[in-house]
Design a protein that fits this description.
Layout lengths: L1 E2 L8 E5 L4 E3 L11 E9 L2 E7 L2 E2 L7 E4 L2 E4 L8 E11 L2 E14 L6 E3 L3 E3 L4 E6 L8 E6 L2 E2 L7 H5 L4 E4 L4 E4 L8 E8 L6 E2 L3 E6 L3 H27 L6
Parallel strand pairs: 1-10, 2-10, 12-20
Antiparallel strand pairs: 3-8, 4-5, 4-9, 5-6, 7-8, 9-10, 11-13, 13-17, 14-15, 14-18, 16-17, 18-19, 18-20
Length: 248
């Protein structure tokens, strides 16, 4: 058994979901030679046949066709992502000759509608975090927050973000919008947009965050009220003991 040269036009194929992908596999044998062609998918749980004995198998049955010794996959899905191996063997006067080429297929997926968490109310001076996340996109999405329909600036400490006196930190990778000390000026309508360059960007529904000052007077009144109630309860228990109501 001796090796033969197998080539591919692209070792790293990228295709958008629901479109087509071509996995190239080329050889330099003469047309009269008898070739055996197999395609396999390499996965963590093992190696499975994709094309064997002249037929496609599994999920690719009915969706794929041979292009000479390469493959065209129609209507690719995220499940098609993975590593594929083209294996070609040929008989010659020198004996059996074998060759293979490995190709990685990455299916690009548009983002789904992100899930946004925005508190409906907050007190000034407190730490408040808004979050935005979607899990379908490939490559992973980046996130942009909007307030009252206007894109928020990414805090860099310089330039327009600094001049605007930004009170938050926006992380476009994680989708978080963090207010270390939220103010009444941060009251508004918020939503987030997820995008990864594939298909259309997706937005979550608009949610309002209301920021109010801490009502110190109300807190004092509440504390006094609780203290009075506890005192009255204590006096009641003392009176009951004195009258012998708890005697056995």
């Amino acid at each position: 058994v001796s090796g033969i040269s197998i080539e591919t036009d692209n070792k790293n194929v990228k295709a958008e979901e629901f479109k087509e992908a071509i996995l190239s596999c080329k050889h330099k044998f003469s047309k009269g030679m008898s070739l055996r062609i197999e395609w396999k998918k390499i996965q963590s749980q093992g190696v499975s046949f994709v094309y064997y004995n002249g037929e496609f198998t599994g999920d690719l049955r009915g969706r794929a066709e041979m292009l000479n010794t390469g493959i065209r996959i129609r209507n690719v899905t995220r499940k098609d992502s993975g590593t594929y191996r083209c294996e070609i063997s040929a008989k010659s006067e020198e004996g059996q000759r074998l060759g293979e080429a490995t190709i990685t297929l990455t299916v690009l997926v548009a983002p789904s509608t992100p899930v946004c968490e925005v508190p409906s109310s907050a007190m000034t001076g407190t730490v408040v975090q808004l979050s935005c996340k979607e899990t379908e996109g490939s490559p992973p999405s980046e996130y942009q927050w909007y307030k009252n329909g206007v894109a928020l600036l990414e805090k860099t400490g310089t330039g327009s973000a600094r001049a605007a006196n930004v009170t938050y930190t926006m992380n476009k990778k994680s989708g978080t919008l963090l207010f270390n000390t939220v103010t009444k000026n941060d009251t508004g309508e918020y939503f987030c947009e997820a995008s990864n360059g594939i298909g259309l960007s997706q937005k979550c529904s608009v949610k309002r965050m209301q920021v109010d000052d801490l009502n110190v007077s109300a807190i004092i009144i509440a504390v006094v009220f609780v203290a009075v109630v506890m005192s009255l309860c204590g006096l009641g228990v003392f009176y009951a003991h004195k009258k012998g109501y708890f005697a056995s």
